[in-house]
Amino acid sequence: MDKLTYAGNLESLKEIENDPNYKFVKGDIASAKDVERAIDEGVDKIINYAAETHVDRSIISPDAFIKTDIFGTYTLLEAVKKYRVAQYIQISTDEVFGSVKNGSFTEESPFAPNSPYSASKAGADHLCRAYFKTYNLPIMVTHSCNVFGLNAHPEKMIPLFITNLLEGKKVPLYGQGQQVREWIFAQDHCAAIETIIEKGQSGEVYNIGTGFEKTNLETTKFILQEMRLGEDKIEYIKDRLGHDWRYAINSQKLRGLGWQPGVSWEEGLRRTIKWYQENETWWKCIKSGDYLEYYRNQYGKKN
Ligand code: DAU
Description:
This protein is an alpha/beta fold. It has helices at residues 32-40, 55-60, 63-83, 116-135, 157-166, 186-199, 216-226, 252-255, 265-278, 280-288, 291-299, and strands at residues 45-48, 87-93, 139-144, 146-148, 171-174, 180-185, 205-208, 213-215, 234-237. The chain has a 4-stranded parallel β-sheet, sandwiched between helices. Strands 4-6-8 form a 3-stranded mixed β-sheet.
């Protein structure tokens, strides 16, 4: 189920379009009617990846974040209660814990969100906890580090930088690029969720992390090197407001269930660069704002 906002893209699901286990429902998680319509299709588990996710957008306009991330989660939780859904997993973020100078966040670390985005995710996570405690519903929450990989919207740093470079442009690095992020390849994140679906316990929280910690400058330099370009392509720009310095997450609890990352940061970045090199039409339409036009042509649908 997806609302198909600016970030949604059915083109990314083309590969599984005809899979008998797949059915697409266009809908808004903040609408009880849409959620119930989706559940009527026959749902036993809900994995809630739906969210407004981009920190910079939340700084400019928090409204959609409150509606989708908080109210949307509330609507889903109400549906879990009403329809006795067998399992609910809330996909959340390490950003709810705020920034950490040394060490790493555990599942018990206190919440200290610093952006409207992370505050809306933290609000949703609190609702999950409350619905488990109050109604004893089968709810789990995950906190992941930064996900990267194929098909990611070019608003995020890694795909933005790769596609800018493919277009011959510079890459806008905030501040001095010294902030640290921990990275996980999307496929490894999916495997982590699969482990939690199979082995996780209701009411539990699981951190998802790799230990692949890099400054933004290190990530940028690696991309430049792989694309055989020089550091003159870096444009240092004004820092993000309230920019969190470092995220790092302790994932021992999840590793205890048998999960571990399979793709290194370097290998993941190489695969990602290659994908964007080979899928120019996909990201060029998004970047040029032509995506709706492209989508209409592909699917013959009108808004
Ligand atoms: O940590 C998990 C989070 O990772 C998710 O919860 C968020 O939904 C996701 O957007 C991501 O948040 P970040 O703010 O860390 O990701 P982003 O790709 O926007 O930025 C990564 C780092 O790169 C961050 O320190 C800001 C910096 N940056 C980002 C952009 C877009 C730049 O220097 N220049 C840029 O143009």
